Every structure is written in structure tokens, then in C-alpha cells.
Amino acid sequence: MTDEQVRAIYAGYIGGGSIDGLAEAIGFTGAAARRQLGERDLPLKRELAEKGAKAAARAEQHMITALLMARVDELRKARGLTIERLAHDADLSMFTLTGLREELRDPKLTTVLRICRGLDVTVAQLLGELPLPAQPRPRIPRETRASS
Q1: CA pair distance 134, 116, nearest whole angstrom
Q2: HEC states along the chain?
Q3: From its phi and psi, is residue 81 left (phi > 0), alpha (psi between -120 and 50) or beta?
Q4: Pairwise CA distance, residues 148 & 144, whole Å
Q5: For 88-136, what is each residue's pLDDT tens digit?
Q6: CA 115 to chain centre
Q7: What is the distance of C-alpha 37 from the center of its chain?
Q8: What global pTM score does this model have?
Q9: How far apart are CA 8 and CA 46, in angstroms?
Q10: CB 68 within 8 A of CB 131
Q11: What was the pLDDT predicted at 48?
């Protein structure tokens, strides 16, 4: 692994990515990347305040996704649809719906719109009672990303 690759992994990690995902994207294991980061004395701890704020924002987003999917299930059951039928009608994969139901991912706007189409409801009918996030997810200033 070159010094440039190690620094790219580190910059991506500080910017919010996972070491494993970043290392695998360039053909290495997360363990190899961690070892190389340690050898170059690059700390693996992100700023604690930033990490805490991101964790709180992620937890809040997971809660909102769970509420959204509970609403989807409520509407789906009221219409007598199975999850498989909803996936078909919404032109979504079962993998996508399962990931949302298990809070493994957050929905994209296009996914929400497809779910609305599959349920034959408006966006307002689906999202009307969901809470807005209390705070936006913290972002790292562009200058910080470039200098890492």
C-alpha cells in the first residue's frame, strides 16, 4: 500500500467513511489499512464532539426510518399487500425494503416516491406525521477534508 493510498483512506475515514469500506474500494483489507495507519502514526480516533454529534444524528435518522417503515407496514396491511407484493408494485427489490425495515439503511427520495406509488398514496399521506430531524447531521467543512 502506497503512502498516498494510506493517506486517502485516512482522509476518507476522517470525513466519515469506514476504514473497511475505503480500504476495500482500493483492493486492501481493513486490517491492512489499520496497520498502515498505525505505522504512519495517523490517529484512528475522530474528533469526539464530531463523532458524538454524528452518532446522535444517525440515531435520530434511524428512529425516523423506523417510524416511516411502521407507517408503510400499516398502510400495506390495510391494503392487504404482502411485503413481496409491495416490492413488486413499487418496483423495488426485497433487499431494499428489508434493509429499510431492519434500519440498515435510510431511504432515498426516489425510494420513498416508489413506496408511495406501490401503496397508491401521496407523499403527504405517507410522511404527514413523521417528525423532522431536530438537527441536521454535522458536516465537515470542505477545507478540513482537503487538508487531511
Answers
A1: 25
A2: CCHHHHHHHHHHHHCCCCHHHHHHHCCCCHHHHHHHHHHCCCCCCCCHHHHHHHHHHHHHHHHHHHHHHHHHHHHHHHCCCCHHHHHHHCCCCHHHHHHHHCCCCCCCHHHHHHHHHHHCCCHHHHHCCCCCCCCCCCCCCHHHHHHC
A3: beta
A4: 6
A5: 999 999 999 888 887 677 889 999 999 999 999 999 888 887 766 665 5
A6: 18
A7: 25
A8: 0.55
A9: 15
A10: no
A11: 40
Walk me through the domains of the chain, giving residue ranges and CATH numbers. 3-46 (no CATH), 48-127 (1.10.260.40)
Kindly tell me the sign of the dihedral angle through the C-alpha atoms of 15, 61, 112, 100. positive
Cell numbers given for 112: 420513498
- Joined together, the cell numbers standing for residue 83 give 411485503
User: From CA 117, how far away is CA 89, in angstroms rounded?
Assistant: 8
Query: What is the rounded distance in angstroms from the CA atom of residue 17 to the CA atom of residue 59?
Result: 17
